[in-house]
Specification:
With 410 residues, the chain is an alpha/beta fold. Helix content is 41%, strand content 23%. The chain has 3 domains: 174 residues, Molybdenum Cofactor Biosythetic Enzyme, Chain A; 68 residues, 2-Layer Sandwich (Alpha-Beta Plaits), CATH 3.30.70.2860; 154 residues, CinA-like (Maf protein), CATH 3.90.950.20. The longest helix has 21 residues.
């Protein structure tokens, strides 16, 4: 079933309001076994008419958001009626509902709100208990321009989401009939690049009949998406894990930090962090996870050399001899955090985020990471992430968390 979404609103095009509908619709429709073929964002005005005219001529379902309010630029109802060649009439039940909405709030209803009771003849009114703008469903039999079913929904998520789930989903199920959903599996990997997948397994995945593959790359992470039958996805999963299993974060959609907290909690272990160049980002990611208080004990932000020395006990001689960004200092930071906190394991990072401060020996983007564990040897590795400061910090935090994941698994 071909589905198109048109999001209306000049504020979306100007960037004044973040358009979150795209990702939300994609997730909700995929749960039904349906996928969006095309999604468009247009400003208020004539652009709605043009986009709707095109969409209803080629799609089976068109979902339009926004433009159902009382102001002069809210024209979605009027444009839809014009495009579909359907008369608009005042729905007395909707008007009564609007009047009641304002009455129970002791507010007068402006005349402008009356336009919200205009409904295309024969269309279904979709109740909106969370706002004044009811939705509208125009079934295919009323479409004078094509065979598409058209849904008009309010723009605010607090109104759109419940209306979609309660009013739109049942109608979509009926329209889809016996259409069978393809399943989706998502495997999250870190420490391996998108190009590694392309070179390593793409050709073999392409040979699996009925399997659709896709990648979504983030800083320090690649998500592999497998869409198809259960058998096709299982075959794809087997190939991916045989080649890159050591880099797998999880298959349950959880973030890396959620995975780390879950693994440490399962063992009854605790974590401390010692951060220089990341400025607390590792601690922040860990404490964003519900239940992290059972695992996370201490977060030390030792940005200055004096803090490394006074808080973590890093030897001044190490700082003078090797510099703050060095294997020796990273190890000392991790061991100091472990000692001071009493945690089961500690991670430390120290690096050069830039844009200044680099040298030929230690260019901008250089970082040392170290992990210390009770009763075990301290491990340290050098990383290099020549990115902007924000992405550098994110990449380093990703490496630090992945090291904790590997440590607890080992």
């Amino acid at each position: 079933m071909r589905i198109e979404v048109i999001n209306t609103g000049t504020e979306l095009v100007l960037g004044n309001t973040l358009n979150t509908h795209g990702a939300w619709f994609g997730r909700e429709l995929f749960k039904l076994g349906l996928r969006i073929e095309r999604q468009t964002t247009v400003p208020d005005g004539d652009a709605i008419r043009e986009s709707l005219s095109e969409a209803v001529s080629r799609a089976d379902v068109v979902i339009v958001t926004g433009g159902l309010g009382p102001t002069s630029d809210d024209l979605t109802r009027e444009v839809t009626a014009e495009v579909l060649a359907i008369e608009l009439i005042m729905d007395q039940a909707v008007l009564t509902g609007l009047e009641h909405f304002f009455a129970i709030r002791n507010r007068p209803m402006a005349d402008a709100n009356r336009k919200q009771a205009l409904v295309p003849v024969g269309a279904d009114v979709l109740p909106n208990p969370n706002g004044t703008a009811p939705g509208v469903y125009v079934p295919p039999r009323l479409n004078g321009r094509g065979h598409a079913a058209v849904f008009l929904l309010p723009g605010p998520p607090r109104e759109l989401h419940p209306m979609f789930r309660e009013e739109v989903i049942p109608r979509l199920r009926a329209l889809a009939g016996g259409e069978v959903a393809a399943g989706c599996s998502e495997l999250k990997f870190t420490g391996v690049g998108e190009s590694d997948f392309h070179q390593g397994i793409d050709a073999r995945l392409a040979e699996i009949e009925g399997l659709e593959i896709g990648y979504c790359a983030h800083v320090g992470e690649v998500d592999l998406r497998l869409i198809g039958t259960e058998e096709a996805r299982a075959a794809g999963r087997e190939i991916a894990l045989a080649e890159f299993g050591q880099f797998l974060i999880n298959e349950d959609g959880r973030s890396l930090e959620e995975t780390v907290i879950r693994l440490f909690a399962a063992k009854g272990w605790t974590i401390a962090t010692a951060e220089s160049c990341t400025g607390g980002l590792i601690s922040s990611r860990l404490t964003d996870v519900a239940g992290s208080s059972a695992v996370f004990t201490h977060g030390f932000i030792t940005y200055a050399n004096e803090a490394k020395r006074d808080v973590l006990g890093v030897d001044e001689a190490l700082l003078q001899r090797h510099g703050a960004v060095s294997e020796e200092v990273a190890r000392a930071m991790a061991e100091g955090a472990l000692r001071v906190s009493g945690a089961s394991a500690a991670v430390a990072v120290t690096g050069i985020a830039g844009p200044g401060g680099g040298t030929d020996e230690k260019p901008v983007g250089t970082v040392w990471l170290a992990w210390a564990v009770k009763g075990g040897a301290t491990k340290a590795i050098r990383g290099f992430h020549p990115r902007n400061r924000k992405d550098f910090k994110l990449a380093v935090s990703q490496g630090a968390l992945d090291g904790l994941r590997r440590l607890v698994l080992e």
